[in-house]
Amino acid sequence: MKKIQMVDLNGQFQKIKSEIIDGIERVCETSSFINGSDVKSFADNLKQYTGSEYVIPCANGTDAIQVALMALGLKAGDEVIVPTWTYVATAEVIALLGLKPIFIDADKDSYNIDVHQLEAVLTSKTKAIVPVHLYGQCCDMEPIMKFASKHNLSVVEDNAQAIGAVYTFSDGKQKQAGTIGHIGTTSFYPAKNLGAFGDGGAIFCQDESLAKTIMGVCNHGELGVKYYHDILGVNSRLDSIQAVVLNAKLKHLRAYEIARNSVANFYSKNLSEISAIEVPSISHNSTHVFHQYVMKIKDGRRDALKAFLAEKGIPTMIYYPLPLHYQKAYSHYLRGDENLKISEQLATEVLALPIHTEMKEEQLQYITDMIKSFFL
Could you give all domains of the chain from N- to C-terminal order, each with its CATH number? Predict the structure, then answer.
């Protein structure tokens, strides 16, 4: 049996190797390394795939969130509602811009932001919400957008983990994750469902004026005339070689999603009868692209299971060992009246199993057999 990995990027590469090598050679021959034709082509292709009106590639997913918040013109001291159960990058840029992250809890089933807590944390300083589509499925965006509209708030979707996931509104209308809020962001970190061979990101927008501002922020604040800087900006661009890789993978993204769901279905089918395990739930109004397969291990046995599986050659990960409000860098943002108990509990229970597009049934059977042997 082939060695089990959390992510098998080389196996994925081998299937599209020739297209990627040819594209990289073309970029090297033309020497169009920054904002070349491949970047423009990728932006157009991603626009078509997602249905977004505008797609602005950038250097990475963290930059994407920062640029989005800068484009909205938020001011120091403004409050931004963000889940405490997420990767640090989501709150990191909020703090770096002098804004104040306001943490709310996770939903116990989807792990996504608990929409029922929005009203409780709203103040006169609240200006935006950054929902995170965690592990591969959409937050409950309809009530989020209604709440934002009611209170004149901007919504920036952190879609680093759920590109391709589809949300269904109560009227049957469907939109892809990242295209629902005022701005959407994503990451092309190599291990993502759509991953580059280095860093990369993109920003989605449906408003022409806002899209132009986002483009300007990404390019040192230039709004159309070279060397004229009308707004405060940054240097955040996707290079052409990464665009080649992403263009090649984008053609297979739907197939990657199907492969990941097949892995997830195998896990859930084989592990759901173990009482100490709670397999991931799929929201009724979102598809799941399973960037991660994150289950909950009850009865305080998570760490023992993790150690046992490591001995058997099965890697696992804990996403995340601490919610953000427990992190030293962010604890001072707490007001003292938050109810964040679900996230605190998740930190003691969650465990992610290997999931990627190249997994074989032999590997999956071995993994589930070893888990069963631990519990049964």
Answer: 9-104+111-250 (3.40.640.10), 253-375 (3.90.1150.10)
